[in-house]
Design a protein that fits this description.
Helix content: 10-25%
Shape: elongated
CATH architecture of the largest domain: 3-Layer(aba) Sandwich
Strand order of the largest sheet: 5-2-1-6-7-8-9
CATH topology of the largest domain: Rossmann fold
Number of strands: 15
Radius of gyration: 22 Å
Number of helices: 8
CATH class of the largest domain: Alpha Beta
Strand content: 25-35%
């Protein structure tokens, strides 16, 4: 098939590559505009654009595709059989969705109608789901509400972090999407049950702030769900500290105030949390420094029992 591919982040790359490996011809790539990163605000290419350039495939980056007539014209000129969308990050207008012979299909990292929205992997982990999955569905004018073409359920591993789960789903989703396209003439689309819909809104940096009055199990899920972005953080003597890894230590033998440091050892820094539970910080990143083991940080910061993370 002649395909126009919409996507930007690394999670879209497995599908991009498997479409080509299956013999489909990607005639145009649509990606998000390059974004400034770091202190120098240097423009950084998205992973999808980088691969498109390596393969000498044309790439167009409209800031707002709904208001860009040139995007429509470029796609129309190609006369694609299908549009494939993976983690593109913009609402695509009807004029483009229904342009190809087989319209447009989207790979979504959840079992729709659960976790519609921009951050399904993160919210599934945060909510303590034991299973999630991938869905191939037909795009329509509403967010993640199109008819389902195929689905596959996936078990979430006990200590899995967001980037690890997303990597697995991206690989499995790419395989499922290629199989789905090969049978697209035979599949009878299934309408979603909108009454069962749940939502996974886009994350903000502030969502990563730890509230030590929450129990340690929730904090453990938060740390895993928001790794690597937006990351979880707390403050120690007014300095922001990112928390990259840790674990729930369960119930405490005695009561203490949430945020208080209970113990410091080679294993890490143990913090009192809500519900008389405690959380062990194992890997940490102080402000303007590299990631390090929490025990090493405790020496440099002269941490002692009774100090408080806020």
């Amino acid at each position: 098939m002649k395909v126009v591919f919409f996507g930007s982040p690394a999670s879209a790359l497995p599908t991009f590559k498997k479409l080509l490996a299956a013999g489909h011809r990607i005639k145009l790539v649509i990606a998000q505009p390059d974004k400034p990163r770091g202190r120098g605000k240097k423009l950084v290419l998205s992973p999808v654009k980088s691969l498109a350039q390596e393969l000498n495939l044309p790439c167009f980056q409209p800031p707002k595709i709904r208001k860009d007539p040139l995007a429509f014209q470029k796609i129309k000129n190609i006369r694609p059989d299908l549009i494939v969308v993976v983690a593109y990050g913009q609402i695509i207008p009807d004029s483009i969705i229904y342009l190809p012979q087989y319209n447009s299909v989207n790979l979504h990292f959840s079992l729709l109608p659960k976790y519609r929205g921009a951050s399904p992997v993160q919210w599934a982990l945060l909510n303590g789901e034991e299973r999630t999955g991938i869905t191939i569905f037909q795009l329509n004018e509403k967010m993640d509400e199109g008819d389902i073409l195929s689905q596959e359920e996936v078990k979430i591993f006990p200590r899995e972090r967001a980037f690890e789960l997303e990597d697995r789903l991206a690989e499995m989703g790419a395989e499922l999407l290629v199989r789905t396209i090969s049978q697209i003439d035979k599949i009878v689309p299934l309408k979603q049950n909108h009454a069962q819909a749940t939502y996974a809104p886009k994350l903000k940096k502030e969502d990563g702030r730890i509230d030590w009055t929450k129990d340690a199990l929730f904090i453990d899920r938060q740390v895993r769900a928001f790794n690597p972005w937006p990351s979880t953080f707390a403050f120690f003597y007014e300095k922001r500290i990112k928390i990259h890894e840790g674990k729930d230590k369960g119930k405490l033998p005695c009561l203490s105030s949430p945020g208080k440091i209970l113990a410091v050892s080679k294993e890490g820094i143990e913090i009192c949390c809500g519900g008389t539970t405690s959380y062990l910080i194992q890997k940490i990143q102080p402000e303007n420094k590299k990631e390090m083991h929490a025990y090493a940080f405790s020496h440099g910061a002269a941490i002692k029992i009774g100090d408080t993370f806020t």
